[in-house]
Amino acid sequence: MTTQLLIVAGDPSGDLHASNLIKALKLRDPSVRVAAVGGPLCLAAADEFIEDLASRGVTGFWEPALKVGFLLKLAGKLKRFLVDRRPAALICVDYYGFNRRILPYAKSAGIPAFYFISPQVWASRPGRIKVLKRFIQKMLVIFPFEEKLYRDAGVPADFVGHPLLDLIPEPMARDAAANVVGLLPGSRASEIKRHLPVFFEAFRVLRAKRPSLRGLLFASANQNDTAYGALPEGVQLIREQDYKLRSTLDLALCSSGTATLENALLGVPMVVVYKMSWPTYAIARALVNVKHIAMANLLAGKAVVPELIQGDATPERVAAEAAAILDDPTKAAAIRAELLKVRRSLGEPGAADRAAAAVLAGAVAEAAP
User: Fold this and answer.
1) Closest C-alpha to 160, from 7, 24, 304
2) Any idea what DSSP says for residue 348?
3) Do the Cβ atoms of 163 and 196 come closer than 8 Å?
4) 329 and 359 assigned to the same domain
5) Nearest CA to 229 among 221, 220, 237?
6) 129: closest CA among 159, 106, 104, 96?
7) What is the DSSP annotation of 25-43?
8) Do 147 and 203 lie in a common domain?
9) Does the residue 167 lie in any domain?
10) How far does CA 151 lie from the centroid of its chain?
11) 234: CB partners within 8 A, 6+ apart
């Protein structure tokens, strides 16, 4: 007898973590058959692939409105799947804006729902916890403070650890010479368009005084090489999945997002940048209630790495913050030490396996007479 599950992820990082969850589920129970909405990694891991949502880059406040027809059609397809196929469980992976629409369908069909990787309710819109309480059997959270947050609100929650700990190796010893800067502009086309010109110009400024400086531009799996345009002298386009080159960086110029936590786990100092459309920024300012945007700073509870947002994210400011780290080995070492404390706060490897165990146990308990 097979166990049918439905997993829904909607962005590149969700695609990665959902695909590893699929693999963990299958290792624990070979009878599991997974239908997935996600991206290319879920396509490779799932038994049935419903839609590539992760590669469409539907994020923010305005972008979903531009693709509302596609999203409504996909939501309808998933509603029919839940009613007709009756999977043992629905597993939502991050991507609250869309998953919020699917959860009521599971509830109406009597199908238990799990949420792996919580929306950032602690950063903005805490009212989402009340919504999740109505529809979720259990939250499977990846930051230790989230477990208490949900349990205090009456939502069952387990801290399963952070899935990146399974993927990112322990930091390596480094060459004393500060010669390699990583450029990580983000995975979405809109992020690349806004951040990459700033990063390129900042790199030129840095290299003018440091002729031996090299730049590694880390391309997203969801973007073609052409998305990055002509590269400045000294910059090389890199595609990797094992973090080997990333771990060698002396510094990263990094878009706020998953990459900032990846860098923290590798002990890579960084300058964090985020630019968005001005209307989106105005809405975000009104909604977000945390002091920092970089996850390393949030977890540390202080400004370990510099953050430059919107109008502050100029090439000159980025280059100045980067130079302050590159030219001060003591400062760079202190940042690395703080980042490694962040890594230790996130528990042990095995998040996907622990999440899989919770899903399977919950689905079985729900199915029991």
Assistant:
1) 24
2) -
3) no
4) no
5) 237
6) 96
7) HHHH-TTEEEEEEE-HHHH
8) no
9) no
10) 23
11) 203, 207, 213, 214, 215
Tell whether 309 is covered by a domain. Answer: yes
Lookup: tokens for 247: 């771990």
pTM of this structure: 0.80
At 279, the amino acid letter reads P
Question: Could you tell me if residue 175 is inside a domain?
Answer: no
Residues 315, 190 share a domain: yes
Sign of CA pseudo-dihedral 195, 266, 241, 245: positive
Instruction: Please tell me whether residues 307 and 360 are part of one structural domain.
Output: no
Q: What three-state secondary structure class fits 51?
A: strand
Contacts of 281 (CB under 8 A, 6+ apart): 310
Residue 271 in contact with residue 252, Cβ under 8 Å? yes
The DSSP-derived string for 230-246 is: SPPTTEEEE--SS-TTG
* CB within 8 Å of 288: residues ≥ 6 apart: 123, 124
**What kind and span of H or E run contains 273?**
strand 270-274
Same domain, 139 and 193: no
Place of tokens 């002091």: 291
Question: Minimal CA–CA distance to 98: which of 60, 144, 155, 148?
Answer: 60
Determine the Cα–Cα distance for residues 201 and 108; give it in Å rounded to an integer.
Answer: 53
In Å, what is the CA distance from 76 to each residue of 82, 98, 230? 10, 12, 42
Q: How far is 104 from 131, CA to CA, in rounded Å? A: 10
Per-position pLDDT tens, the chain of length 369: 889 999 999 988 899 999 999 999 999 999 999 999 999 999 999 999 999 998 876 555 455 555 788 899 999 999 999 999 999 999 999 999 899 999 999 999 999 999 999 988 765 567 889 999 999 999 999 998 899 999 999 999 999 999 999 999 888 766 666 699 999 999 888 899 999 999 999 999 999 999 999 999 999 887 899 999 999 999 999 999 889 999 999 999 999 888 999 999 999 999 999 886 545 544 455 445 557 678 889 888 899 999 998 889 999 999 999 999 999 999 999 999 999 999 999 989 999 999 999 999 998 776 655
Range of the domain at 135: 3-161+350-367
